[in-house]
Amino acid sequence: MLAAENIHLHYGAAEALRGVTLVAEQGQITCLLGRNGVGKTSLIRALTGQHALSTGKIALDGRNLAKASGHERARAGIGLVPQGREIFPLLTVRENLETGFAALPRAQRSIPSHVFDLFPVLKDMLGRRGGDLSGGQQQQLAIGRALAMRPSVLLLDEPTEGIQPSIIKDIGRAIRFLKEQAGMTILLVEQYLDFCRDLADSVYIMDRGEIVHHGDAASLDRPDVRRHLTV
Predict the structure, then answer these.
(1) Residue 24's domain is classified under what CATH number?
(2) What is the total count of domains within the chain?
(3) What is the C-alpha separation between 47 and 60, in angstroms, rounded?
(4) pLDDT tens digits along 122-164
(5) How far apart are CA 159 and CA 161, in angstroms?
(6) 137 inside domain
(7) Helix, strand or coil for residue 51?
(8) For 85-98, how does the pLDDT look when each residue is reduced to its tens digit (9 = 90+)?
């Protein structure tokens, strides 16, 4: 279980997160929604140690990680698929996947077979440079890289952004597999409402740096909930 408790985060004088509390339950898919600029990516940065908290607590299975560095959180089992993919364009697909080994002991440094089961195209393109892949293939590569570090918790920041519908379906199937077959805890940050409704066990909605709704996926159909998502 990954939990954020009453966390505040500032960029200089600007407060990006204001008392955010969120729990990603073990073996479930938790979806975080909200309009652009409401603090979703700031929360991901806080959870992964890319930006220090002002106050609050972040815990993984009860262990307080609020002061832990990013690489310490990765070793603890937190994997990240960042917004915009951030693959290495000049490295091959294989080399990109192997960058996920950095947090692992040497004996575990192999690419898990389910990476290629979920995304067969990666196996066919192991020698191709990451920058030569399509946007959808790069997104699959970014997910595969995170899975190569064998995380217990996977954070995905808008994985459907700019991706063609066929690849979105592949990503949805992969996320469902990781929950149902691998028992992984997943925090999915999205703006694609239908994608979240189909996958999520629970949903949170952010607005202006705060959590304004928490409920099950069916609650996304309520008018009072949807108003937080409309422009």
Answers:
(1) 3.40.50.300
(2) 1
(3) 10
(4) 999 999 999 999 999 999 999 999 999 999 999 999 999 989 9
(5) 6
(6) yes
(7) coil
(8) 999 999 999 999 99
